[in-house]
Amino acid sequence: MRDGKRRSGWREWHAGAVVAVVMAGLGAPAALAQMALPTQAPLTGAELFKRQCGTCHTTNAADQPRQGPTLAGVFGRKAGSVEGFRYSPGFAKADFSWDEAHLDAWLTNPQAVIPGAIMPYRQPKPDLRAALIGYLKELK
Ligand code: HEC
């Protein structure tokens, strides 16, 4: 999907470049200055989720659980409360609900939030964590 987008972006740019060259040949340098350069849009929370979490987490409670519990309705949900999912033992002592601060700390380093947690993921970039949390908030 991303490659498809990139390819069409390239095509647009390429077409623009051809036009620019033709116009430059006609002595229209002002048009050149207005040519937009291709930009790489930052990934949305949904895209990040698909790539970085989707292998292990579904977003629909009715789906078959993967390696991790479903994240449907995770925002505001008590940690470790998906029925039938076998969390690591540390979750038994986790007495909080998932809010921004807990999710941010969790995505930075799960084991710092719940000792012994078995989620093998860390995201050091605050902007990417924020995008992911924004997406998690929307999951009903
Ligand atoms: C390789 C698999 C894997 C990946 C990738 C992964 N997780 Fe997890 N996640 C888990 C597992 C396993 C658990 C349960 C941890 C435990 O029991 O110690 C978990 C637990 C969680 C929990 C706690 C849920 C609850 O019910 O309390 C949240 C929130 C979470 N993951 C979010 C994410 C997000 C967001 C991403 C992507 C940025 C992600 N995870 C990527 C495997 C993964």
TrEMBL record:
Name of one Pfam family that matches: Cytochrom_C
Keywords (A to Z) from UniProt: Electron transport, Heme, Iron, Metal-binding, Transport
Domain Cytochrome c: 40-140
SUPFAM superfamilies for the chain: Cytochrome c
Membrane-spanning parts: none
PROSITE patterns: CYTC
Tree of life domain: Bacteria
Coiled-coil annotated residue ranges, if any: none
Annotated Gene3D superfamilies: Cytochrome c-like domain
GO MF annotations in UniProt: electron transfer activity; heme binding; metal ion binding
Protein name per its UniProtKB record: Cytochrome c
Naturally occurring in which organism (per UniProt): Azorhizobium caulinodans (strain ATCC 43989 / DSM 5975 / JCM 20966 / LMG 6465 / NBRC 14845 / NCIMB 13405 / ORS 571)
